[in-house]
Amino acid sequence: MKILVVGSGGREHALAWKLLQSSQVEQVFCLPGNGGTASLNRCKNISLQVDDFEGIGNFALQENISLVVVGPEVPLAKGITDDLQSKGLKVFGPTKAGAQIEASKAWAKSLMQEANIPTANSAVFNRAAPAKSYIKEHGVPIVIKADGLAAGKGVTVATSLNQAVEAVEAIFNGQFGSAGEFVVIEECLTGQEVSVLALTDGLTIRPLLPAQDHKRIGEGDTGENTGGMGAYAPTPIATVNLMERVQKQVLNKTIDALKAQNIDYRGVLYAGLMVTTTGEFKVLEFNCRFGDPETQVILPLLETPLEELMLACTEQRLEEMPPIEWKQGTAATVVVASGGYPGTYEKGKVITGIDEAEATGVTVFNAGTQLKQQLITDGGRVLNVTGVGENFEQALQLAYAGIEKINFEGMYYRRDIGYRVMGNG
Ligand code: AMP
Ligand code: GLY
Hints:
Blueprint (H helix, E strand, L loop, with lengths): L1 E6 L2 H10 L7 E6 L2 H5 L3 E3 L7 H10 L4 E4 L2 H5 L2 H7 L4 E2 L3 H8 L1 H11 L6 E4 L2 H11 L3 E5 L8 E4 L2 H12 L10 E5 L4 E9 L4 E3 L4 E2 L2 E3 L3 E4 L4 E4 L6 H21 L6 E9 L5 E7 L7 H4 L7 H9 L15 E8 L16 H6 L3 E4 L2 E3 L3 E3 L3 E9 L2 H13 L15 H5 L1
Parallel strand pairs: 1-2, 1-4, 2-3, 4-5
Antiparallel strand pairs: 6-9, 7-8, 7-9, 10-11, 10-16, 12-15, 13-14, 15-18, 16-17, 18-22, 19-22, 20-21
Helix pairs in contact: 6-7, 7-10, 8-9
The protein binds adenosine monophosphate (AMP) and glycine.
The site of glycine has 6 residues, from loops.
């Protein structure tokens, strides 16, 4: 098989790396890819943009691609799947209609409410004045969300009325473009976040190992939200009992609700949950794709060949597949970012020590990197240093020991990934 992976982050490096472990996979193309995918054996970067559907379609047909795997949400929300499917290609990733589950928070909320899926109480507004009245009526803390895709920057957890009002104004001021036509205002939930990524063919849905991300830039979960600064899987908060309830109350209900709207959803459904200390949970958001960096800890533990699962999804025969098999143990990843991220940062810094790090037993997934004469930084989140061990201590120790070998000017990483599991939270 030849497989095309669309995207350029750590998630896509991990997808390409995992797919290439199967003897059935002859070649992976990564589009546009990064410095890490450029360095993988039997993997080639293709310099096309992820929204150049015509170019991608032509390339895939010309190369006889068996499966297109779409990493990021933006091309999915723009309809890459519809476009490529109409050319006869097999695509792992939902259609434009299905991607609304991430691309419109208001749409996702109404789907959850209609299907009776546990989620925070909320209201949707298209004008500032009634939104502000609602905030005053409900008080703080309160959560303000731009409806559309905002690259992880559209959510404010407001602790003062001023902050809440300013967030509403920023959304309606056009700061988020068409993503800010509507605002979703939501009850503030507390607890621990769990990412449940599930594979679906639109009829059957099966969860992968539950993971926990660390969204804030600062240690102890402080400071600004980011795309994710580190993750581990499986997370002990998601007990077998919790996962059974998630299957019934979230995953099955969501697939049924999508089917009822004639939406044929084949790919990953990612439910972001808030879990309270008593084991209650509510859905914070849905994503229509693999999580980043969750994928970088889930895939190293996956035993079942990934392309078999993905093909079963695109060919609607997931039900026939044997149970998904996993390695024992734990995976942890620590994101190494450019100094200044998630604000402004410089690019083009030379990265050293990747081979030395991998010699210690970690896998270094590249995110914002480029391979020129040397490997250089090319984004905010630069590397994901991933350790797999028998337990959390081992996995985290490995990841942090690996990072010691790596260097680039201004590099930053959180030193407390996994602190909750390690009993410090
Ligand atoms: P979302 O894009 O909806 O997942 O929001 C991004 C982040 O904002 C989440 O990962 C949470 O950390 C936080 N968040 C979102 N909704 C809520 C909520 N209702 N209560 C508390 N925190 C939230
Ligand atoms: N790690 C969060 C996300 O992928 O949205």
